[in-house]
Inverse folding.
């Protein structure tokens, strides 16, 4: 009761301070739709900012009268739309920088699909840039988006590119890798090498010979350990470029979902702190430590440590693989290939995952678990239920399930009951929808992928993300995908019409809901008095734009703390 009284008093005092300071706004916006994303989904005529905080929203006449002075900057939107800055709750910022800025970027989100021949040509061209002793590292090969369907790299095909330069290519999903024989030789991986814990597999053929295919990140470790580390200056440059590109999509706050995965926990924590201290990032970051990278007994960071620009809030685990990669853990077998018995695999025994999570849950960290398949979702929900036992307000912990791809109605209901927030990689619908529907899992399961409407019906929250570099950062694209659910590959069809949501619901999934998921909704995610002035200026109002054209709206400006970002 005392805490509640103090909180109400502090809130009242803060409101009074704002109310009594009328007449000295730094900036006032007007002249276009201002979409607040408040509880009523209101649009207002004007918005005023003071010292990086929103101090008023409402009519232009009232705000001009109460807040405008001779020094106030007046911005006429000229018909453009002002919205809350987008919140991206699941990005691998360092991973994206390395995949797109330091290696060979093989991602292809347009048509036509690549073939093994076009991939070979791209690798051969990049080979000429590799210095002596270097590795050919690439990201973005995707058999489910390769012609013919599921054409896959092997050590033998990579040997055709080079037998002397080690080659390590990561699948678009981030859960599968491909290496040539030279890379296996340098990494010391042989037919006798045991599969690593955490779901790692060195795939062998029927004759017991290594194929060059790797499953799950633990199997990548021997190869990453032998690859020359990029110069620190090059890495920092690439991270800054990636962060700028994220901001250019209208994102003002982003997660870093796996701190420690690429180069170790201490190195990456230090890197983020230095970048933030030197104003090297044009976005806010909410960071999640990668569970397997945390040393035993680690006490270097406390839950919620940091400030408004960089805050460490959670711990992330991976419970299964990729749905389009046929490694996510399902309750029933995949449809592809025909008559397969493959159901994918869990990365952990349930009791082992529970023990790993409980350590950080008890310390007060938020938990986020990657679970694509319904078997992995079952495992995660059951463990969350155990962790939350006896908690009268389970939603206060805001536990996360990343992807929640292949699911059941019962799992949705249980997740809502536990206050679990699913993060949908909504690009699954766009880029992989046809493959899921017609080949990988069949219509019934595919239609429930990313079940936005089901969560809304049950009264739960959901968010959208890119999982970059798995798909491209672009919240306007996510809004189109969530509200329209149209797959890319012709002939285009709607994937699961019953799971479409309104444009307003999709907007909330990339603003206030995403801010809530990352414990930032008190300051971010909507344009309301007392919140940080994180804004995005759009060429058009997504609420008045045809659903499948929302993705094409231009981001004109991105503002953080009332300041226009320039890079």
């Amino acid at each position: 009761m005392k805490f509640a009284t103090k909180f109400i008093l502090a809130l009242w005092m803060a409101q009074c301070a704002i109310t009594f300071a009328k007449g000295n706004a730094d900036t006032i916006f007007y002249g276009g739709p201002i979409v607040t994303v408040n509880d009523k989904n209101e649009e207002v005529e004007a918005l005023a900012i003071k010292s990086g905080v929103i101090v008023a929203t409402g009519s232009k006449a009232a705000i001009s009268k109460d807040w405008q002075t001779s020094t106030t900057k007046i911005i006429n939107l000229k018909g453009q739309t002002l919205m809350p800055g987008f919140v991206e709750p699941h990005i691998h910022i360092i991973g994206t920088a390395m995949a797109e800025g330091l290696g060979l970027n093989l991602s292809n989100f347009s048509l036509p699909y690549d073939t093994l021949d076009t991939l070979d040509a791209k690798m051969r061209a990049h080979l000429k840039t590799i210095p002596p002793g270097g590795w050919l590292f690439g990201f973005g090969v995707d058999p489910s988006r390769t012609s013919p369907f599921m054409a896959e790299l092997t050590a033998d095909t990579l040997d055709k590119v080079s037998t002397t330069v080690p080659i390590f290519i990561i699948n678009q999903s981030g859960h599968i890798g491909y290496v040539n024989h030279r890379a296996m030789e340098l990494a010391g991986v042989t037919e006798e090498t045991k599969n690593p814990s955490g779901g790692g597999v060195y795939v062998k053929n029927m004759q017991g010979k290594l194929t060059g295919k790797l499953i799950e990140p633990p199997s990548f470790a021997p190869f990453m350990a032998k690859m020359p580390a990029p110069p620190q200056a090059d890495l920092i440059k690439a991270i800054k470029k990636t962060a700028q590109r994220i901001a250019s999509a209208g994102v003002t706050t982003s997660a870093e979902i796996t701190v420690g995965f690429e180069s170790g926990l201490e190195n990456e924590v230090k890197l983020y702190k230095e970048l933030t201290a030197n104003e090297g990032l044009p976005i806010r970051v909410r960071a999640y430590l990668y569970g397997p990278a945390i040393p035993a007994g680690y006490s270097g960071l406390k839950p919620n440590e940091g400030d408004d620009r960089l805050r460490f809030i959670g711990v992330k685990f991976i419970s299964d693989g990729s749905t389009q990669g046929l490694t996510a853990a399902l309750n029933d077998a995949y449809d592809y290939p025909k008559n397969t018995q493959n159901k994918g695999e869990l990365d952990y025994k349930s009791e082992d995952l529970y023990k790993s999570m409980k350590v950080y849950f008890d310390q007060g960290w938020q938990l986020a678990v990657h679970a694509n398949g319904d078997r992995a979702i079952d495992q995660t929900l059951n463990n969350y239920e155990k962790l939350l036992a006896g908690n009268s307000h389970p939603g206060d912990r805001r536990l996360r399930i990343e992807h929640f791809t292949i699911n059941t109605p019962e799992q949705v209901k249980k997740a809502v009951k536990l206050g679990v927030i699913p993060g949908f990689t909504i690009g699954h619908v766009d880029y992989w929808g046809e493959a899921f529907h017609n080949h990988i899992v069949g219509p019934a399961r595919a239609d429930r992928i990313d079940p936005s409407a089901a969560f809304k019906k049950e009264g739960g929250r959901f968010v959208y993300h890119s999982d970059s570099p798995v798909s491209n950062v672009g919240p306007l694209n996510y809004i189109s995908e969530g509200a329209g659910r149209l797959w890319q590959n012709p002939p285009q069809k709607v994937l699961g019409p019953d799971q479409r949501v309104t444009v307003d619901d999709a907007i909330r999934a990339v603003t206030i809901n995403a801010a809530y998921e990352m414990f930032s909704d008190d300051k971010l995610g909507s344009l309301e008095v007392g919140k940080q002035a994180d804004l995005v200026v759009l060429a058009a109002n997504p609420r008045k734009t045809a659903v499948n054209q929302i993705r094409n709206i231009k981001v004109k400006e991105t503002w953080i703390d009332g300041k226009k970002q320039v890079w």
User: Anything to note?
Assistant: The longest helix spans residues 2-19. Residues 2-79 form a domain with the Urease, subunit C; domain 1 fold (CATH 2.30.40.10). Residues 1-6, 16-20 have pLDDT under 50 and may be disordered. Residues 297 and 359 are 10 Å apart (CA to CA).
